[in-house]
Amino acid sequence: MTDNTHRFTMGQRLVLALVPRMVWALLWIVGLTWRFEVIAEEGVTPVVFGQKAGPEIYCFWHQCVLPCTLYFRRSGAVILISRSFDGELITRILRMFGFDAVRGSSSRGAREGLLGLKNVIETGRTAIFTADGPRGPIYETKMGPIKLAQATGAPIGAFHLQPEGAWTMKSWDRFLIPKPFTRIIVSWAQWTHVPANTPTDQFETLRQQLNEAIERARLRALAHLGQLAS
Q1: Which of 27, 155, 187, 213 is geometrically suited to a Cys-Cys bond with 217, CB 3.0 to 4.6 A?
Q2: DSSP code of 159?
Q3: Which residue has the higher pLDDT, 54 or 174?
Q4: What region does 104 belong to: left with phi over 0, alpha with psi -120 to 50, or beta?
Q5: Residue 137 near residue 67 (C-beta atoms within 8 A)
Q6: pLDDT confidence of residue 74
Q7: Pairing of strands 176-178, 166-168
Q8: Which stretches does DSSP call E strand in the chain?
Q9: Nearest-angstrom CA–CA distance, 130 and 86
Q10: 76 to each of 15, 48, 116, 142, how far by Cα in Å?
Q11: What residues form DSSP beta bridges with 58?
Q12: Is the pLDDT at 68 greater than 80, yes or no?
């Protein structure tokens, strides 16, 4: 792993040295108490816990990063993460759970990030997008997954993980921290396919299609739990 700590202040370096292991240990212990329940739209075959993922693209909303980290920890997937300090912190935590990272985002290093994920797909691994990350707006998919799918032929899986009990942070993404011993619904919607010959003027239509699929997965999970959408 390349050491990028020279870009950060001494205080940030101290945080990077200590916090990832603390978060990993706490998340691992609490995560062992979570109970996952999988649901899916008709005709959709969901990816289940422990299944090794193939050359596919997964998309979900930024708010459910924590339960996704536990659920997909054995998938060998690679996630696109920003080059910021927060991104560096998240990268170090995710690597402890068996993930890898490509650095870039919709705002910085976008081209390099997509090229890195293209290589991930071509080597038979799964690429993951927090579709509305890293800064939102909430529940609005970026164009990156569509471009990557068109370049690689990989299908895009849309899903959401909704805890029955969670603390909701007052952040742009309404970040979810599942409570111990809670049930978490893993909700899958229809996959999105982008043929290689898709013209760029159809990208926006496909982006909206993907956006609607992730939202359906979220709303279906909330309805399954008897919770109101927010």
Answers
A1: 187
A2: E
A3: 174
A4: left
A5: no
A6: 78
A7: antiparallel
A8: 35-40, 57-60, 78-81, 100-103, 127-130, 156-163, 166-168, 176-178, 183-188
A9: 14
A10: 26, 14, 15, 23
A11: 128, 157
A12: yes
Rounded distance between C-alpha atoms, residue 13 and residue 4, angstroms: 10
Which helix (DSSP H) or strand (DSSP E) does residue 211 occupy?
A: helix 203-225
Average pLDDT over residues 25-30: 95
Q: How confident is the model at residue 5 (pLDDT cuts 50, 70, 90)?
A: low
Confidence of residue 81 (pLDDT cuts 50, 70, 90): confident
| Nearest alpha-carbon partner for 39 in 159, 154, 155 | 159
Q: What are phi and psi of 216, to 5 degrees?
A: -60, -40
| CA separation for the pair 101, 116 (Å, rounded) | 9
Selection from 198, 122, 129 nearest residue 158 by Cα:
129
Q: Per-residue pLDDT tens for 147-182?
A: 999 999 999 999 999 999 999 999 999 999 999 999
- 56 three-state secondary structure: coil
- Could you report the per-residue pLDDT of 178-215, keeping only the tens digit for each? 999 999 999 999 999 999 999 999 999 999 999 999 99
> Is the model's pLDDT at 107 over the cut of 70?
no
Determine how β-strand 156-163 pairs with β-strand 183-188. antiparallel
- Could you give all domains of the chain from N- to C-terminal order, each with its CATH number? 5-225 (3.40.1130)
Give the alpha-carbon dihedral of 88, 94, 99, 100, to 10 degrees.
Answer: 10
pLDDT on residue 78: 92
Helix axes 10-31, 85-96, angle to 10 degrees: 40
